[in-house]
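Session log. Operator J.P. requested a structure for one protein chain; no other inputs attached. Running the standard single-chain path with token output.
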Amino acid sequence: MEQMRMAKDYDYLLKVLLVGDSDVGKHEIISGLEDGSSESPFCSGSAYKTTTILLDGKRVKLQLWETSGQGRFSTIIRSYSRGAQGIILVYDITNKWSFDGIGRWLKEVEEHAPGVPKVLVGNRLHLAFKRQVAAKQAELYASRHKMACFEISPLCDFNIRESFCELARMALHRNGMERIWRSNKVLSLQELCCRTIVRRTSVYAIDTLPLPPTVKSHLKSYALTSSQCINTLMNNSKNRRVKTPTQTNSTRNSCCIS
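Structure written below.
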């Protein structure tokens, strides 16, 4: 019973890996997020935390793995990147060397997790007066490598949720989940009216309604694409076949159609 309850806590589960040089603030990014947090039971060089975000009415649970930027943990990157559905590449906007090292991390990720959606994150925006990496430079780099780009500040809680939401959206679209966005769209007033009218009448009775011809035409088009109306059409056609008299004395009875 407990397992069934826990299974309903989210709609989708994604594994996200945070990579980047040491002291770029990866732990700062995930430390302020709500939900359960614990150290990874598999490796002391990787911090693990879960958080749940609401994305277009769907609960997306993120498993966030923050790996150490030191070279001796490169084997950890290779191991965890293989099962990741999203990658956060982190650099410090006040440290040009951390931005220059993104290429090395990107190469490592592409080698072991090709095609996985990635977001480039410039941390410590609250220290913009010490900026060494221009925002335009980061945007051009991200665009060249087909990544989204955000500048964030854990201290001000700025753009952190937005960057995770964008990565989750990219990951779900990559895995064929585009339909979740369409199911939560707000219906227009016209579509709501059409749905209500079609539910209470048949396609043959639309012509008898006291409505303008253009509205009737739209209703017919909507009805023909409705599964409910298709069933009505099938039932009506069956009834018509039952009511048709059988011609016993007809010259067509002698004809055999094959």
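Operator note: Residues 37-45, 180-185, 242-258 have pLDDT under 50 and may be disordered.
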